[in-house]
Amino acid sequence: LGSGAGFPAIVLAILLPEKSLTLCERMARRVNFLRSAIVKLGLENAEVMAVSAEDVKERYDAVTSRAFHSLKDSYPIMRPLLRDGGAIMLYKGMMKTIRSEIEETEKAYGVSLTYKIDNIRVPFLDEERNLLTIL
Predict the structure, then answer these.
(1) Contact indicator for 115, 79 with CB cutoff of 8 Å
(2) CA distance 4 to 30
(3) Using only C-alpha atoms, what is the Rg of the chain?
(4) pLDDT tens-digit profile of 14-31?
(5) What 3-state class would DSSP assign to 82?
(6) Global model pTM greater than 0.85
(7) Average of pLDDT values for 59-68?
């Protein structure tokens, strides 16, 4: 969701050619960029939907984003997009911020999230990055 410049979706399409990926982006100039990148890279496994996340009706095995919204704001948008057994996978920053977002989300929606947090080493970036996976 909020595919913007194609991260992580374009990277995932390259690394997982056997998987079908749908990029969701509402801004026309970003949609045009993403469609162009997909064609130029020959990614037959990726497509772009030019809609807001709230308008998506399909269900997916996984929903990803890098900088879509805070977890509290994105959870009610992302959760309905998952098939049974699906996962939300979010590229996030500092661990303490993630834990705070999880607490805030659980409190706001009266849920107990099942999740894991994996530290990510990003080359040439000297800042903490993590992958939050909500099951």
Answers:
(1) no
(2) 6
(3) 15
(4) 999 999 999 999 999 999
(5) strand
(6) yes
(7) 88
